[in-house]
Design goal:
disordered C terminus; alpha+beta; 2 domains
Amino acid sequence: MSSRGKSILAISIILFWIITDQVLKFWVKTNMTLGEDIPIFDWFHIYFVENKGMAFGMEFGGEWGKIALTLFRTFAVVVIGVILRNLVKTPKASVGLVISMSLIFAGAIGNIIDSAFYGQLFSASTRMQLAEFLPGGGGYAPWLQGKVVDMLFFPLFEWKGTLPNWVPFIGGEYQEMLFFRPIFNLADTAISLGVFFILIFQRSFFQYFGEEGTTSDVTETTTLSSTSTSSADEHTQVLAKEQNELNQAPPLTDNVNPIDGTQTVIMPKADIEAQLKKRSEEIERNIAQNKEDGEEENDGKTSIF
């Protein structure tokens, strides 16, 4: 696929996932009370919760931890965006890798929107009251301290009973076990899918950075440098040849006939030397320009990606 095709694909995935994620979060936030549960199937529920921290309801470090996490997410999005931009421009990068990085990028942006802006855009969600969009009295939290909206709940397997006595520490006790307990959102899903695809299906991704991203680029840079050096040497040899011919040529002066004293004017030596000097300067300028072009081309071709 061409670079243009990869760009269109990446942008389409990012926009689709961010818009879908935010539309679902907006609907849940304005139509469900906190903790409300809407069963879709036995194994899938829309269950509204909010968390201050990381994916799947995990939290991190209180208020300052929340701010730090939001800033870290922002930094990570910038880094992922730069990597994705280089992948799109690189013919060696597979379409699957571009899709995976686009999913991770979209998921990260989706959760950043919650953390950075929801505290100002919505009133607080409670178990008794729906949240209001753009409330007159202001939002429920300062900038960068919004809560991430989660709603996807998959209680795939539930077990209740008393464990055998031979089970260490909790044997003989009544237990309730539920899989899969964490509640998450579409942004978390995008990040998880992107990482999963890279680890399982895109092992060449690591080879691309570890081998092709270094070895091939260094080889290409060396080749360009050698070509530039060879071109400069060729010009230097031409200059040396012309200077050598000048040094070996007999002095050219006015030719005087000894019989009748007439004078035939041949091109003065000073003019010839001036022309050769001018030619020498032109060759030197060409050498300098060729070196500059070679350096610029090397800078343009070398990339860690």
